[in-house]
Amino acid sequence: MNRFIKLLIILLSIGFPALSAGEGSSESIMRDSLSLNDQEFPIKAVTLYTAGLAQIVHETEVDGNQVLAFPVEHKDLNDILKSLTVEDLDGGIVDSVNFTSENPLSATLSELRVNPSGSPGIIEFLKRTQGEEISVVTDKGSFSGRIFSVEESRNAEGSRRINLNLMNQDGLSTVNILELRNLSFKDTLLQEELLDALGDIAQARVKTSRMLKISLKGTGTRIVRLSYIKAVPLWKTSYRIIVDEENNPRLEGWALVQNTGNEDWTNVKLSFVAGQPNAFIMDMATPRYVYRETVDIASASPIGAVEYDSGVVPNRSSSQLSSKSSAPVMMYEESELMDDSYYGVNESYAPVPIVSQAGGERIGNFYRYTVDSPVTVEALSSAMIPILSSPDVGSSLVLYDPAQGGVVFKALRLENKSDAHWAAGPVSVSEGRSYAGDALIPDMIPGSSRYISYALHGSVDVQKIQEPQPQRIVSLKISDGMMHRQDKMERKTAYYIQGEEEELILIHPKETGWNLTEHPEIDEETSSDYRFTLKDWGDKPVIVSEEYLLSSEYSLSNFGLTDFSYYLEWADVTPAMKNALERMAELKRSEVRIKEDSAALTARIGRLERDQSRVRDNMAVLEYDSDLFKKYSGQLEAQEKDIQNLNRQVEEKEQELLKARSDLARFIGSLELN
User: Fold this and answer.
1) Where in the chain is the domain with CATH 1.10.287?
2) Alpha carbon distance 142, 563 (integer Å)
3) Ranges assigned E (strand) in 499-602
4) Cα-only R_g, the chain
5) For a Cys staple, 84 with which of 228, 242, 340, 426, CB 3.0–4.6 Å?
6) Which residues form a coiled coil (predicted)?
7) How far is CA 329 from the centre of its chain?
């Protein structure tokens, strides 16, 4: 690219800021540029979100009119441009925020006379430079001229040859590209432009940081606060559940935070937000150009008057108010002593509860945990902080789920009785001081409950036996010429339970269309299963009976004799229904008999017509006055009379058939039976 043009672009980018907040911002930047400094921006607060984002807050001091230089890593630039807020807390004015913009590489290269992007081969590249004047050196000498064309050919031996055709005042000359030793453009500007373009392509792969120039106006020493959102590792929650001697679970929650940046978080106010805010990335830094279609000039009639319907101002609901409460903290109670070789006879059954280091606050639909004391997390390091300690979060039980291989699990019913949002995370379960198993806690909002299983149960066994019953008719109805039929399918599932426990949750799969007819108490119901609570099962099996009702409709006019016979054999058919079916069967038999008679007559006509055709073929070879010809003539005459008589009978049968069908349809239409 022309160096003069590049210098002009740099001057313009300095003179016209890419992002400003107020009139006269460029003037302010130029006037206060001498005040720009690289002072530190210590991090004061970090709020981590479960969407993989963090809100970072910096504070620093300024004096008078000043331009702050705030470095931003390339990967964070778009998030910061989308979310940055600047506050001058002591009465100053935020004038503007400026940063250098770079044209997209594709836009820069598209303006060149020859675009070298895409790593073109020599043939493709030379085709792009058609018409340019060049000088080439080969083993056979030097040549010059304007590029006319590039073509590929093969000689008689099949060897490949790529010809560069050059045009000059002496005419057209051909150079074998495979023999080129040097090629240069006579136009030095084009040569420099290509070199600059290749440099731009290489530079585009280098991700450099950007400097935000924040212009502030005011008097005296003031505090300035910067706040923005950036991508960080997802903050994680892990839990511990300790089940005491009375099978009461206690929940402890720990937040895991990872500082993968290059800056220490020293004595920062650290918060964790449980919730799922919408989040996305948008390229705010790269200039965008809108494609505009090129159209021809056209004439058109002017648009007439335009009217708009009256609008209605929508109601605006008030925003949710924040409610604040401290995170629950469990008070330790002495339990019975453990006789354990490691912990000793004076150790309690369960470990001492942790004390939560964070307070809780509900903000709208989110729940924020804020650590009580300042926290330090060095760069490229992690920390775990206890944020939750809640006693009595549910109960211990046994759970059977046939979808998990038909095994019995030790489980817990967790109940979130607090105002806190429990973020999803792994949980390690201990029975007293002994590890019992792992589980996963889903997102649990206040007031919700969940089952979690953490180990196989060794002393309770459940056997499932299912007995399907054959499908049977349960009701028939005739209305509007239709047979409305309802069938029922039934199945009985028996669960044989061995072993003793205080409570067992039996999960039974739910299938579309199947309804319960006999079952224990339902504790919960989801879209895929029923959950029964069993307290005492004894030696008898737990029975779950279900039924499936299937409704279907059939047109009685399409019934055959076998269909009527099938329904007449139904054991629960009512007398009125039976009489109606018998009458319809009788009318149907009459219709069938008439159709059979008509078909027999039609068959006789067909045989006679075929015989007539045979006789005519024989007569064609006979003399008209022969005795055999006369005999055949008499036979044809007799057969013709028979055919006419049979056709009359067929017509009569067709009338009888129409009447029989009409009688059946009229009878069917008159029926209304349950």
Assistant:
1) 561-669
2) 100
3) 504-509, 514-518, 522-525, 529-534, 542-555
4) 46
5) 228
6) 629-663
7) 39
- What is the C-alpha separation between 214 and 97, in angstroms, rounded? 5
Given the structure tokens 């009125």, which residue do they identify? 576
Token pair listed for 261:
């940046």
Q: Which residues of the chain have pLDDT under 50?
A: 1-37, 297-342, 345
Tell which residue, 375, 453, 497, 403, has the closest CA to residue 48. 375
Per the CB < 8 A criterion, the answer to whether 97 and 82 are in contact is no
* Token representation of residue 234: 């997802």
Was domain 113-194 assigned CATH 1.20.1250.20?
Answer: no
Provide long-range contacts, Cβ within 8 A and 24+ apart, for 83-86.
83/227, 83/228, 83/229, 84/212, 84/226, 84/227, 84/228, 85/226, 85/227, 85/228, 86/214, 86/224, 86/225, 86/226
CATH 2.30.30.100 boundaries in the chain = 113-194
Give the pLDDT score at 327. Answer: 36
Can you give the pLDDT at residue 347? Answer: 60
Do residues 401 and 457 lie in contact, with contact meaning Cβ atoms separated by under 8 Å? no
According to the model, what pLDDT value does residue 545 have? 94
Quick check: 207 and 213 in contact, CB under 8 A? no
DSSP structure class, residue 318 = P
List the CATH code of the domain at 561-669: 1.10.287
DSSP per-residue codes, 211-259: EEEEEEE-SSEEEEEEEEEEE-PPPEEEEEEEE-TTS-EEEEEEEEEEE
Q: List CB contacts of 320: < 8 A, sequence separation 6 or more.
A: 364, 365
Q: 272: which 2 tokens?
A: 């964790």
Interatomic CA distance for residues 350 and 191, integer angstroms: 80
**What pLDDT was estimated at residue 374?**
84
Task: Return d(Cα 48, Cα 26) in angstroms, integer.
Answer: 35
Both tokens of 177, joined, read 């590209």
Q: Which of 659, 473, 671 is nearest to 555 (CA)?
A: 671
Cβ(14)–Cβ(125) under 8 Å? no
Distance CA 233, CA 231 (A): 7
- Specify the pLDDT at position 108: 64
Q: Which residues contact 349 (CB under 8 A, 6 or more apart)?
A: 244, 245, 335, 336, 337, 338, 432, 433
**Type of residue found at 312:** V
Cα 238-399-442 angle, rounded to 5 deg: 30
